[in-house]
Amino acid sequence: MNTYFDQTKIKWLQLIRTQGIGPIKFWNLLKKYEDIERAIETLKDPYPYAKAEAELYEHQKRGYHLIAAYEENYPSRLKRLNDFPPLISVAGNIDSLGKPAIAIVGARNASLGGRKLSFHFAKGLGEKGWVIVSGLARGIDEAAHKGSLKTKTIAVLAGGVDHIYPPEHESLYKEILEDGAIISEMPLGTSPSASLFPRRNRLIAALSQGIVIVEAAYKSGSLITAEYALDLGIDVFAVPGSPLDPRCQGCNHLLKQGALLVQSASDILEVIGISDHPQTNATDTTPAEYTPSILIKPSDIKKQILEDLTTTPIPIEIFLENYNYPPGELMSLLAELELQGLLIRHPGNCVSLVL
Fold first, then answer.
1. Cβ distance 337 to 309 under 8 Å?
2. How far apart are the C-alpha atoms of 211 and 303, rounded to whole Å?
3. Which domain holds residue 336?
4. Residues 159 and 257 in one domain
């Protein structure tokens, strides 16, 4: 390889990629020996220099950035963590990493109302200059990214930045890259696993100046993200919901613990302020609406309706706006579900799950 590389960065890669070395041990070794070469010399089986160099080369070849903590464009907010990653991979616009940011996260199996709320939170905050951070997951995360595509959004991945998960978000992934960023601390090609998601969640919290939980089960990754935020002294906002809906139990728990109750983007802006965050330069003023990422199959439509409902009534118009399904047939299906005792109609042309 004839390309010039930062030799210190390669050696940092050697150390962090060595088996058994995580961020805390990395920083402890660096502090103890005060020199990266001396730290590597103490290892019995260090990661090969050639492989570390090849990883850096692969980033350059594919148009990714590998940013070390000693570089100016490393997100300073990550350094609030006691185990902040020595290096992060970034795909897309690295300038978005230094801008004011708010995280929006929540349930993967989110209700339609929850997804729309997440979308409009992201849109409203983005229009006031805030970058939206989330995890590219289904449900609330997906809606948050979609709501902030025009005003910058950052997706934090549990796997490598080149591993799109879930795979059906390939199109969304590419849209984010147009002006936002995808980041990860894991090597390229890493597939996400259960143990990596809490690590991903701590980065979501640390990158943000506030975190919004829209829907979340009592034991969920979103609550782990909230716990990281609280540990860092970051404001946690939660949307209240019916105690009968498992997707709302986590938010209600956070509210009892002192999280800030919010129902709109303006509620959040009242707390975090907007004076230092000017409106963005988004030029497309076309009204944006939340739309599902996958067309609903006729055989799945009833199941989808029941998944999207909660015990809180929502207008039928929301289904008509967001389902790619003939309105007449959709109304007939809602009537069938009502006759089966699975949903209930309310005044104002609203429906909900049966209590």
1. no
2. 31
3. 298-353
4. yes
